[in-house]
Write a structure and sequence with these properties.
The complex is a heterodimer of chains A (215) and B (327). Chain A has 215 residues and is mainly alpha-helical. Chain A has helices at 13-27, 34-40, 45-56, 69-89, 94-120, 126-147, 157-163, 166-175, 186-190, 193-214. The chains are: A mainly alpha (215), B alpha+beta (327). Chains A and B meet through helix 1 and helix 4 of A and helix 4, helix 5 and strand 11 of B.
Chain lengths: 215, 327
């Protein structure tokens, strides 16, 4: 199928179930449960709502004909819109929130498209790439920080590696709610290491997919 | 060359944004109704006040006004801006009160960090939950057409922000800043979006981000006149000098009970002391108790004993204390 032609088949049930699970997880930070809200503290609900989508949208698995990440986008936008409203009304910096939102949309679309391109042409290197980028780097950074009692991360290569992962970048946005760092600006969200690594992933998958189909 | 530098420094001084703290003065007004709103011009900044005075009513009341300090500026008398308003409202001569220059305060009071403001989030509400649930079901119904599902989701996301919601009342944080060497106290109150205060008094206002719109509101109700500082999507702080008596023999603030206190002696770390009634001797160190919050001890001077504490909660307001030169 060419990238511009409309998908003709439904999103498989297994993928739909994954997206439903992500939807439930993204709604949780918005619930009125007092204990949960107290535990989350001042953390950005918007960034928390984006986390499950970034984690699940590119999960390797069943081959699909269409761009199933569009279904994930349709499911997540109403939830993240409410999370944005909640954070904005709580007085969090609007510039930072819009940057978080933009970073979330870019991550979802690029990782989802990478998975689609890889599944279409059976690119075997997608699964390890996705694992390293989305789960491996934040896992490694967390393990190193845990091993060093939380002192290793700042200004080290482990922090640089973690910043390449969209999941780590979104987790950082959960905590930096009142910072006046450069992420207030949308440009910073577009050119941050995690967004660039997502773009690199989609470009690499497009190239490998084209080669695979040509072969 | 020197004159060029002089002109350049004057231009930069004029172009610079207002100082970090903008002075708020008070003035007595004589009003004859009907008066809905009036504007007060103190030379640099206009203050708009909502009054709601009925026809035929005559009233004298103290009103705050805002002036943004500029380098080399004088201090003009506040005046009513609109000629129509000026017929119904006038400034009572000789009643203007302004705070002292911020620079005249002791360094130990000026250099402290602003209090952290707690965030109260609005409740999502059943209507919004129903909306996102309905949107999810419709999107899932379009499982065979993912592009249509995405469009529907984006439309539902845009529409959900239009659902009306009740405004959230943000909590007020109060910090009593004391400097026992000079005997001066500063009361800092902070909140988000809207800081409601009691009787009008002179002081300084700071709002972050500084570019946000700032205005004052004065309201009269059965309980008296209250005023508010409003700035959408901002953190607002109002600082004023206050007089607080010291506890005899202890040099601490009298009449206050503390939920938690911390003491830092010169060259030592912060030592948690637990609850303190205020009148008795300071309790001994509590082993294993948590230290003070980071914002509370930021910017405090070195080499002097300092007491920091959280006062027992009053209704809807949390109060903290930072006292330099304790004991």
């Amino acid at each position: 199928m060419s990238p511009t032609s409309p998908p003709s088949t439904a999103v498989p049930l297994s993928r739909t179930a994954i997206f439903l699970f992500a939807w439930v997880l993204s709604v949780l930070p918005l619930t009125v449960d007092g204990g949960l809200q107290a535990a989350l503290g001042d953390g950005s609900r918007l960034a928390l709502s984006w986390l499950p989508w970034i984690a699940f949208v590119g999960m390797p698995g069943a081959a699909t004909e269409g761009r199933d990440w569009l279904l994930a986008l349709g499911l997540c936008v109403p939830v993240t819109a409410v999370a944005l409203w909640v954070d904005q009304d709580a007085g969090l910096l609007a510039g930072r929130l819009h940057a978080t939102n933009l970073a979330g949309v870019v991550a979802l679309c690029t990782i989802g498209e990478s998975r689609y391109l890889a599944a279409r042409s059976d690119v075997p290197s997608y699964a390890p790439c996705w694992f390293v980028l989305v789960l491996g780097l934040p896992g490694l950074a967390t393990a190193l920080a845990w091993g060093a009692g939380g002192r290793l991360m700042e200004g080290t290569w482990a922090e640089l590696l973690a910043s390449l992962s969209p999941l780590s970048a979104m987790w950082r946005d959960v905590r930096q709610v009142d910072s006046s760092a450069s992420a207030e600006f949308l440009g910073a969200a577009l050119f941050c290491p995690s967004t660039l690594s997502c773009v690199v992933l989609v470009v690499v998958m497009a190239v490998l997919s084209r080669r695979g189909r040509a072969a | 060359m020197r004159s060029v530098l002089h002109i350049l420094s004057c231009v930069l001084a004029l172009a610079a944004p207002g100082s970090a703290q903008d002075p708020v003065g008070v003035v007595e007004l004589e009003l004859t109704g009907p008066v809905e709103t009036i504007g007060i011009d103190a030379g640099f900044e206009r203050t708009d006040l909502s009054l709601g005075l009925l026809s035929g009513e005559t009233r004298r009341l103290w009103s705050p006004f805002l002036s943004r300090a500029r380098i080399g500026s004088g201090e003009p008398t506040p005046r009513i801006t609109d000629p129509d308003e000026a017929r119904r409202a006038r400034v009572v001569p000789g009643t203007v009160e302004r705070p002292i220059e911020w620079a005249e305060l002791p360094v130990s009071l000026k250099s402290r960090g602003l209090p952290a403001l707690r965030t109260v989030r609005p409740e999502v509400g059943a209507l919004r939950f129903a909306w996102i649930l309905a949107a999810a079901l419709l999107v899932l119904g379009l499982r065979r057409r993912p592009a249509m599902a995405a469009l529907l989701g984006v439309a539902a996301g845009l529409a959900v922000t239009w659902i009306p919601a009740a405004p959230v009342e943000q909590p007020v944080v109060r910090v009593l800043e004391g400097d026992l060497r000079s005997g001066r106290w500063l009361q800092v109150r902070g909140s988000r979006e809207r800081l409601q205060l009691g009787e009008p008094s002179a002081g300084w206002v700071r709002h972050l981000p500084q570019a946000a719109d700032l205005h004052l509101e004065l309201r009269e109700s059965a309980s008296g006149v209250t005023w508010s500082i409003c700035s959408p999507k901002s953190r607002i702080y109002f600082m004023e000098e206050v007089s607080i008596p010291s506890t005899p023999g202890l040099q601490g603030p009298g009449g206050h009970a503390f939920g938690e206190v911390w003491l830092r002696e010169p060259g030592a770390a912060w030592s948690p002391r637990g609850p303190w009634a205020g009148e008795e001797r300071l309790p001994d160190e509590l082993e294993g108790a948590p230290g003070p919050p980071g914002w509370l001890v930021a910017g405090l001077p070195q080499g002097v004993p300092i007491l920091a504490g959280r006062l027992t909660a009053e209704a809807g307001e949390e109060t903290w204390l930072r006292l330099v030169g304790f004991l």
